[in-house]
């Protein structure tokens, strides 16, 4: 793991403490509104897909400033993880610009696209079903995977397995997640 990740983990235990509701209803929205005004970021309902490179640059700059001013909020420790300008720039420069998902004949490489790019836009569909019934979950996933425009799937969480409910932060959650992974793998085979 990179040095910055270790720093962020450490800061999640030492950063400034703030209640979640104060972060989400006071700090974050006020800084966001200031940056929206500063960079003149407006949504045009007649242009649902933004293609203006100047607006894209403004949104990117506003995002960097938002991270610098607000930081990230760790819900578990109720602390704010702050970064310096240099750390943000380092993270941007060292970030991967491509990622390969899958392997062998199922591998696809995702890379950034620009407006008007001829590169194929990949689509990922939700697969599975909001159920405890494993077979139903598998059949739904298989039907989604047969769609010709589907390049990959995002598993929908199972409610449980049989009578076992999916309860966060318990071994039951681990079992349910492993079951989801197994079913999606089987459906893709």
Summarize the structure.
By secondary structure, the protein is an alpha+beta fold.
Tell me the helix content: 40-55%
Chain-averaged pLDDT? 92
Query: What about the largest sheet?
Result: 2 strands, antiparallel
Task: Sketch the topology as an H/E string, one letter per element.
Answer: HHHEEHEEEHEEEH
Structural classification: alpha+beta
Number of helices: 6
Morphology: globular
Which features would summarize this protein structure in a list?
189 residues, 6 helices, alpha+beta, 2 domains
Notes on the structure:
With 189 residues, this protein is α+β, with helices and mostly antiparallel strands. The chain has two domains: 3-94, no CATH class; 120-188, no CATH class. Helices cover 47% and strands 13% of the residues. It contains six helices and eight strands; from the N terminus they run αααββαβββαβββα. The protein has helices at residues 3-14, 20-38, 53-70, 85-94, 134-145, 171-188, and strands at residues 72-74, 79-81, 99-101, 108-110, 124-127, 152-155, 160-161, 164-165. A two-stranded antiparallel sheet has the order 1-2. A hairpin with a 2-residue loop joins strand 7 (160-161) and strand 8. Helix 2 runs antiparallel to helix 3 (53-70) and helix 5 (134-145) crosses helix 6. The longest helix is centred in the first third of the chain and has 19 residues, at 20-38. The protein is globular and about 50 Å long.
């Amino acid at each position: 793991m990179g040095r910055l990740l270790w720093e962020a983990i450490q800061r999640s235990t030492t950063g400034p403490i703030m209640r979640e509701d104060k972060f989400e209803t006071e700090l974050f929205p006020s800084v966001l509104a200031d940056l929206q005004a500063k960079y003149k970021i407006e949504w045009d309902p007649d242009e649902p897909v933004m293609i203006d490179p100047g607006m894209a640059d403004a949104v990117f700059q506003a995002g960097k400033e938002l991270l610098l001013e607000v930081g990230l909020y760790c819900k578990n420790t109720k602390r704010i993880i702050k970064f310096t300008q240099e750390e943000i720039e380092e993270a941007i420069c060292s970030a991967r610009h491509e990622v390969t998902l899958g392997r062998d004949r199922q591998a696809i490489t995702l890379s950034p696209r620009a407006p008007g790019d001829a590169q194929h836009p990949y689509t990922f569909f939700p697969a599975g079903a909001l159920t405890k019934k494993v077979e139903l979950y598998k059949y739904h996933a298989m039907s989604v995977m047969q769609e010709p425009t589907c390049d990959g799937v995002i598993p929908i969480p199972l409610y449980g397995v049989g009578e076992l409910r999916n309860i966060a932060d318990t071994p039951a959650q681990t079992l349910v997640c492993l079951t989801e992974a197994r079913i999606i793998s089987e459906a893709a085979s």
